[in-house]
Design goal:
This protein has no helices and 17 strands. A hairpin with a 4-residue loop joins strand 2 and strand 3 (about 30-40). By secondary structure, it is mainly β. It is about 0% helix and about 35% strand.
Amino acid sequence: GSEEGLLGLAVHPRFPEDPRVFLYWSAARPRRSVIASFEATPQQIDLTSEQVILEIDQPYGNHNGGHLAFGPEGHLYVGLGDGGSGGDPAGHGQRPLTLLGSMLRLDVDGARPYGIPADNPFAQGGAGRPEVWAWGLRNPWRFAFDPVTGWLWAGDVGQSRFEEVTFVRRGGNHGWNVWEGRHCYKAETCPEASLVPALWDYPRKQGQSITGGVVYRGRAFPELTGAFLAADFASGRLWAL
């Protein structure tokens, strides 16, 4: 499918002392997402060293998410879409008892294949899976940490009206499929108290698939310092927030 394949790669923050790289890809029969580690040198990945960390059943071929990144504290973050079709028919986004529609946070230096960080929202069980860091996401297929503040920024692809930029918070319900961007998705009014609104959204007339992005901390363009850079896959537009 057009949203399947090799979707994420993250190098361990202590590489090459810790020689592991982490990959996320789509597999078939049954359709699923696979997260695995491999040992590597700076030149080559050793494919015989594969250690599967997590497999997630995928009901459809779209909205697989798939980006991987290490946070400033050294844990591995995994972006997962709602599992696909359109409109989140199974309601995964609002059910943190499923891994779909969520941002996961894994301790890959603890127990194997992974441990649960003690400060994950559902680390002790309860209303969500212990791997879940935040939920209510539609397809956060690209995200990044600000290297100065440590804040987690994501581009969350919209359904049919709005694309959004999300500041992903610990234990945050980011709204999908109640909200699309900063707007109600189905109803005329929708609850606000328990949902984290998008930081910014734009209508489909400006683009149809947000790709976001990075916080700029370089020196070449001081006017962009601290700005989150996002682009749109369909329109080619580029924004700095």
